[in-house]
Amino acid sequence: MKIARFVLKVVALSLTVAAGVCCVIAFWDKITEFLSNAKDRLGEKAPCICRSEFDDYADWDE
After folding, report:
1. pLDDT, mean over the chain
2. C-beta separation of 33 from 40 below 8 A
């Protein structure tokens, strides 16, 4: 009986992980849009966070 419970727990865990992966795949466009908007909003409030390290050398070639 202990083996059957263990097998059922493994099956339940694998189905839960599969459902999570399916949700991420189904809503990938909305997730990326949300993260992009969050990045843009953070960039407006704190521009030094999202600034590239190469911005300091933009005039080096001139």
Report:
1. 83
2. no
31 vs 38, 39, 49, CA distance in Å?
11, 12, 21
CB atoms within 10 A of CB 43: 13
When pLDDT is cut at 50, 70 and 90, the band that residue 59 belongs to is low
Looking at the chain, the whole-number percentage of residues with pLDDT higher than 90 is: 55
Q: For residue 37, give both structure tokens.
A: 């908007």
Which pairs count as long-range contacts for 18-25, CB under 8 Å and 24+ apart, including other chains?
none
For the entire predicted model, the pTM comes to 0.56
Contacts of residue 31, defined as CB under 8 A and 6 or more positions apart, other chains included, come to 24
The CA distances from residue 35 to 24, 26, 53, in Å, are 13, 16, 21
